[in-house]
Design a protein that fits this description.
The chain is an alpha+beta fold. It has a domain of 171 residues. The protein has four helices and twelve strands, in the order αβαβββββββββββαα. Strands 2, 3, 4, 7, 8, 9, 10 and 12 form an eight-stranded antiparallel beta sheet that branches. The radius of gyration is 31 Å and the shape is elongated.
Length: 254
């Protein structure tokens, strides 16, 4: 009888601990996925706003179900603009399942996802959560908490996180050359917009051309501003040369 009571107490303690610490301390060993590989593995790309997050028990497995409104389909065919992500793992009552770290998503947030393998019309995030990027203004960040890298990640990963300019991230995921976001004055027209990849890249080209034109105008204006000082220097040289010539002729006449 005492053994039975002890067993009940032990199981209850395990249940309380599992509620308080739902396997968040676990880590899974992975290989770092660069953006180009995330794009290659993705069947769809999307910039979304999270509407709701819930958990569902199906076939003895808990799934975290995330409903999203699509802000930018990034060239993907996502139907009616509502996207459902079904990520294995989560909690229903006292039952907790874990298949790897989960993005730390919340309703109302914007995210950019690389998505793979639909499950009954739903999607999962590429690379467990390596294809998930939380958007904050013009910056997108992916969090590697819960991962133990098999090899050292690149220097761009600092304190378990990696940040990108939103426009650079989108262009690299779409297979285009990145690196112009820092020179673009108004990224807001691209970040969070409902544009096709062609429209997005066209806007980028227009902004880059505008920047080049502004740079040329600025150089021309700088040259005009320097013109008076250059003329003054030239006139001074001519006057000094004339004075030296007069002095030289005076010395010769003596």
């Amino acid at each position: 009888m005492r053994s039975f009571l002890f067993l009940l107490i032990f199981l209850n303690a395990v249940g309380v601990c599992s509620q308080a610490y739902p396997l968040r301390s676990k880590k899974i060993s992975v290989r770092y996925l660069p953006l180009e590989e995330v794009a290659k593995k993705s069947k769809a790309l999307a910039h979304v706003k999270i509407k709701s997050i819930s958990a569902e028990l199906k076939d003895s497995m808990v799934y975290t179900v995330v409903q999203c409104a699509v802000l930018d389909a990034m060239g993907s065919d996502l139907g009616n603009g509502i996207l459902e992500i079904r990520q294995p793992g989560g909690s229903v009552g006292n039952l907790h399942t874990w298949s790897g770290p989960m993005p730390n998503w919340r309703p109302g947030e914007e995210w950019i996802f690389g998505l793979s393998g639909s499950f009954s019309g739903s999607w999962t995030v590429v690379g467990i959560k390596q294809g998930a990027f939380r958007v904050d203004g013009y910056v997108a960040e992916r969090d590697f908490e819960g991962f133990a890298f098999l090899e050292a990640p690149p220097a761009s990963v600092a304190n378990g996180k990696e940040s990108f300019a939103v426009i650079d991230l989108k262009m690299r995921l779409l297979g285009k050359q990145a690196g112009v976001a820092g020179n673009i004055a108004d990224v807001s027209s691209v970040a969070g917009s409902s544009k096709t990849p062609e429209q997005t890249l066209s806007m980028v080209d227009e902004q880059v051309d505008s920047i080049k034109g502004d740079a040329v105008d600025e150089k021309a204006e700088t040259a005009l501003n320097r013109l008076p000082s250059m003329l003054f220097v030239l006139l001074s040289i001519v006057m000094i040369a004339s004075l030296l010539r007069v002095v030289y002729r005076g010395n010769q006449s003596r």
